[in-house]
Automatic annotation (TrEMBL):
Cited Gene3D superfamilies: Rhodopsin 7-helix transmembrane proteins
Coiled-coil parts of chain: none
Official protein name in the record: Ovarian cancer G-protein coupled receptor 1
Occurrences of domain G-protein coupled receptors family 1 profile (ranges): 48-296
Subcellular location: Cell membrane
Membrane topology of the entry: Multi-pass membrane protein
Key words, A-Z: Cell membrane, Disulfide bond, G-protein coupled receptor, Glycoprotein, Membrane, Receptor, Transducer, Transmembrane, Transmembrane helix
Family membership: Belongs to the G-protein coupled receptor 1 family.
Highest taxon in the source lineage: Eukaryota
Ranges annotated as spanning the membrane: 36-57, 69-88, 108-127, 147-168, 197-218, 239-257, 277-299
Keyword Glycosyltransferase tagged: no
Native source species: Echinops telfairi
Main localization category: membrane
Length: 376
């Protein structure tokens, strides 16, 4: 990965730049640690984000603009998760990229863009909740589905245009062991420093300031509100607090070390001294794909009910499957089976009722959920 501005998994003996000089760094520990991180994110994050995409759709169907931001956040995570099998293969083969140069650039961009698209949409979620709580009537035009879609398109276009910058540079090089390394530059190059400063200031520092100001404003507005139920206040505070925690835990260490490298990394010795800490912080950014689905738990009161209904339906399906296998193993026309359970003849009807009850839980609403922004 780009040793300065952005970096994917980096584990091998690397060339320092496009010149003949070499900067050899031992990546052995990361060839063990990185696969664990990436496989965990792949196994846990893919189903979690697929489920989150479904709940985001329910929010959009309920005319909740927050669902637009959450769906875009999930799509960015899924794009990155789809690139993880390539990175796992890369690190397990001791930093040898066996695919095309273009695929290296695309996979690297997916990692890089996931960081900054996630940052942008986490910021949008906090600002949207701030406007909903502190100014529910003054800025209503910014809290519509149309406005959310427009803002989302602008974020994607901005980041995709930035990614073109990386397509203009060669990112696959051959190290001294004849391995094709992907997005590896040590020490970082001059062009990387410039893009790193931009990413730190515009992609991270500016959004985090907006996010923290929004969170402070939300807390102040919630405390002053006397017409809002305590449960709804707690719900809003948990949503924004979880957004801040995800933001800081996943992205702060990486950007601090990114700035340190951009300011002071000028030699191979410095690159070696900071390598382990920098790459561990990079791995933390991947956990964002697992943490983001947690936000859906705090979107609306109906999210928990929708999840309970879905779990109930799955449980009913599994129960039906087990009962069917049991009947195949012990046919009802067998003497023992007919003697042991005369009531089993009622099972199909009973299971049908159980399935129906799971899909129509008492008090469960239709699809979707009420927006959290409509506070008194």
């Amino acid at each position: 990965m780009i040793g300065g501005g952005f970096s994917g998994p980096k584990m091998g003996n690397l060339t320092a730049d496009n010149s003949s000089s070499n900067c050899t760094i031992d990546h052995t520990i990361h060839q063990t640690l990185a696969p664990v991180f990436y496989i965990t994110v792949l196994v846990v994050g893919f189903p979690a984000n697929c489920l989150s995409l479904y709940f985001g759709y329910l929010q959009i169907k309920a005319r909740n603009e927050l669902g637009v931001y959450l769906c875009n956040l999930t799509v960015a995570d899924l794009f990155y998760i789809c690139s993880l099998p390539f990175w796992v293969q890369y690190v397990l083969q001791h930093d040898h990229w066996v695919h095309s140069d273009l695929s290296c650039q695309v996979c690297g961009i997916l990692l890089y863009e996931n960081i900054y698209i996630s940052v942008a949409f986490l910021c949008c979620i906090s600002i949207d909740r701030y406007l909903a709580v502190a100014h529910p009537f003054r800025f209503h035009q910014f809290r519509t589905l149309k406005a959310a879609v427009g803002i989302s398109v602008a974020i994607w276009v901005k980041e995709l245009l930035t990614s073109i910058f990386f397509l203009m540079h060669q990112e696959v090089m051959v190290d001294k062991d004849l391995h094709r390394v992907c997005f590896e530059h040590y020490p970082i190059q001059a062009w990387q420093r410039r893009i790193n400063y931009y990413r730190f200031l515009v992609g991270f520092l500016f959004p985090i300031c907006l996010l923290l100001l929004s969170y402070q404003g939300i807390l102040r507005a919630v405390r002053r509100s006397h017409g809002t139920q305590k449960s709804r206040k707690d719900q809003i505070q948990r949503l924004v607090l979880s957004t801040v925690v995800i933001f800081l835990a996943c992205f702060l260490p990486y950007h601090v070390l990114l700035l340190v490298r951009s300011l002071w990394e000028a030699s191979c010795d410095f690159a070696k001294s900071i390598f382990n800490a920098y790459h561990f912080s990079l791995l933390l950014t991947s956990l964002n794909c697992v943490a983001d689905p947690v936000l859906y738990c705090f979107v609306s009161e109906t999210t928990h009910r929708d999840l309970a209904r879905l779990c109930g339906a799955c449980l009913a399906f599994l129960t039906c499957s087990r009962a069917s296998r049991a009947r195949e193993a012990y046919p009802l026309d067998a003497p023992e089976a007919s003697e042991k359970s005369g009531a089993q003849a009622e099972d199909p009807e009973l299971l049908a009722k159980l399935h129906l009850a799971a899909l129509q839980a008492p008090g469960a609403p239709g699809v979707g959920g009420s927006p959290m922004g409509g506070l008194a």
